[in-house]
Write a structure and sequence with these properties.
Distance between the termini: 9 Å
Shape: elongated
Order of helices and strands: HHH
Number of helices: 3
């Protein structure tokens, strides 16, 4: 894989994880203030699009969505599937 593509992929994943992490923080703050919330669908989408580590970290650091079984099981499952896909493609190439 060319270095340029590796760099773009690294920056993309870094930003997606930062956005996932910050979205958990923002949603937690809004939940405390009874403000406008980020949809759960959006939180999952951010994780699926590459922000699973940041989303999972934010979930536990801010203790946000940890009482919802679908987050407790879903976020680690997304991370596991992404890791498995990454390993699959690394081994294949």
């Amino acid at each position: 894989m060319p270095e340029t593509i590796k760099w773009i992929l690294f920056v993309y994943l870094f930003l997606m994880n930062l956005i996932g992490f910050l979205s958990m923080l923002i949603d937690k703050r809004r939940a405390r203030k009874n403000g406008w919330r980020i949809r759960e669908r959006t939180l999952f989408l951010l994780a699926i699009l590459g922000g699973s580590i940041g989303s999972l970290s934010g979930m536990y650091i801010f203790r946000h969505k940890t009482r919802h079984w679908y987050f407790v099981l879903g976020m680690p499952l997304i991370l596991f599937l992404q890791a498995a896909l990454t390993l699959f493609f690394l081994i294949r190439s």
